[in-house]
Amino acid sequence: MAVITIASGKGGVGKTLAVITLSAALAAKGADIAILDADPNKGAHRWATETYGGGNLATYAEADTERLAELVPELAERHAILIADTAGFGNRSTVICIGAADGVLVPATPGEGDIVEAQKMVSFVQATGRTIRRDIQVRVLANRIRRGTTLSRHLLTQIEALGLPRLETTMSEAVAYGEMGFLPALPTTGQAAAEITALVGELWLLNWLPPNTSRANMYERIT
């Protein structure tokens, strides 16, 4: 089993986009995957129930901290992969999801505020791991990257300068990502499709996804 939590103390950085992108990509390859939406806005849960409409993608929504604390370990045992979406502000639900995670993705878009929030969240995840005495891996996911622009270069440079661990894979501002909010299918061509494939493959290499799945069968280019 694997638990991946998407977290940031700032809204609008692409947490829900990362959740639905990963979930749809893995579900398309037959993975036993579930979404746990701990964000009161329930954006990922609405997408899974109203837009996606596909098989083998379970979805749960729970923002109450007491019920969430009981639900997370139960779902982690029930499903091979659990991806948790969290609120864009610090709350106890986010802490629960981070504490249960094997890996935490911290999306950040170009902008000084996002860099500051990414640094805070990475530090928080690392401190949480030390507190509960287990390793919780964390990576920054650079989102809405425009190749060749000063603002995007600044984001990547600052992440490196601060020593923040980040994924090599980045997500762009491709129109296909916006379309995913109201279309049930993943993009199959173009930049977004290549980025989704790279994202899933990199998480597999980091051992954030179950080791008993076949990379050749599960994480080949999505077509």
Can you describe this structure?
There is one protein chain. By secondary structure, this protein is α/β, with parallel strands linked by helices. The protein is built from nine helices and six strands. It has a six-stranded parallel beta sheet, sandwiched between helices. The model is unreliable at about 215-223 (pLDDT under 50).
Short description:
The protein is of the alpha/beta class and 223 residues long. It has helices at residues 15-28, 43-52, 65-78, 92-100, 112-132, 150-161, 175-179, 190-205, 215-218; strands at 2-6, 33-37, 57-61, 81-85, 103-108, 137-142.
- Please identify which CATH superfamily we are dealing with: P-loop containing nucleotide triphosphate hydrolases
What order do the helices and strands follow?
EHEHEHEHEHEHHHH
Overall geometric form:
globular
Query: How far do the termini sit from each other?
Result: 26 Å
Kindly estimate the percentage of residues that lie in beta strands according to DSSP: 5-15%
Unreliable stretches (pLDDT < 50, length at least 5) are 214-223
Structural class: alpha/beta
Fill in the CATH topology.
Answer: Rossmann fold
Number of domain units: 1
Strand order of the largest sheet: 3-2-4-1-5-6
Mean pLDDT: 91
Bin the helical content: 40-55%
